[in-house]
Design goal:
- It contains eight helices and seven strands.
- Strands 1, 2, 3, 4, 5, 6 and 7 form a seven-stranded mixed beta sheet that branches.
- Helix 1 crosses helix 8 (178-204).
- By secondary structure, the chain is of the alpha/beta class.
- It has helices spanning 14-28, 44-47, 51-59, 68-73, 90-97, 100-104, 126-140, 178-204, and strands spanning 3-8, 32-37, 76-84, 87-88, 112-119, 143-144, 166-168.
Length: 205
């Protein structure tokens, strides 16, 4: 059985919807899947200052919070985050910062990883956010799987880039198109398929 973890942060629901689509797609491809949100690190008073942020946090309280065991368990990991000034959200970055012990012990080597994001506008740092996440994966010794120009679904305007699926929310909560979800499903299938092939290859080798 191939193990796939979908680990994400979402403030108002856009990345959450993409993460759910990824988890469903990986499951359909035959993987055992864990959908995990990273912990909120901002104070509740700040969350409550934004109605959509507070509503989404409350609506997803039943989604398990990610921990390091989820990363060690997984053969493949898809990470999702909104963009913050062209960088990953602080909540996901804080979680990634806790992986140093696993990394130093070589327990994240050869994990297959891929990333996706959502931004308010079309030129709001989608590519730079995914590239910033890749810096972490290089240190792990992980195997990065981009979307590339590998499927027609990725050519729809506002539907991603060669680095990973991205959506444009227009600052509207849960504003993810059917095309975005189809692209996310494709990315998850691609990651799952490559991870399965690598796992078979390592077993034979």
């Amino acid at each position: 059985m191939l193990n796939v973890a979908v680990v994400y942060y979402s403030s108002t629901g856009n990345v959450h919807r993409l993460a759910e689509a990824a988890a469903v797609s990986a499951g359909k491809a035959g993987a055992d899947v864990r959908l995990r949100r990273v912990a909120e690190v901002f104070p509740q008073s700040q969350v409550d200052s934004n109605d959509a942020w507070a509503a989404h946090l409350d609506a997803t309280r039943d989604v398990p919070v990610a921990d390091l065991d989820d990363l060690e368990w997984a053969d493949a990991i898809l990470f999702g985050t909104p963009t913050r000034f062209g960088l990953p959200a602080a909540q996901l970055k804080q979680f990634l910062d806790t992986t140093v012990t696993l990394s130093l012990q070589g327990r994240l080597v050869n994990k297959v990883v891929s990333s996706f994001t959502s931004t308010s506008g079309a030129h709001s740092g989608q590519e730079s956010t995914i590239l910033a996440l890749n810096n972490t994966y290089y240190h792990w010794g992980a195997i990065i799987v981009p979307t590339g120009a590998t499927d027609p679904v990725l050519t729809t305007p506002g539907n991603g880039n060669p680095y990973g699926v991205s959506s444009v929310s227009g600052n509207r909560p849960g504003n993810v198109s059917d095309e975005n979800l189809a692209a996310m499903e494709f990315q998850a299938r691609r990651v799952t398929g490559i991870a399965a092939a690598l796992k078979r290859g390592f077993a034979v080798g």
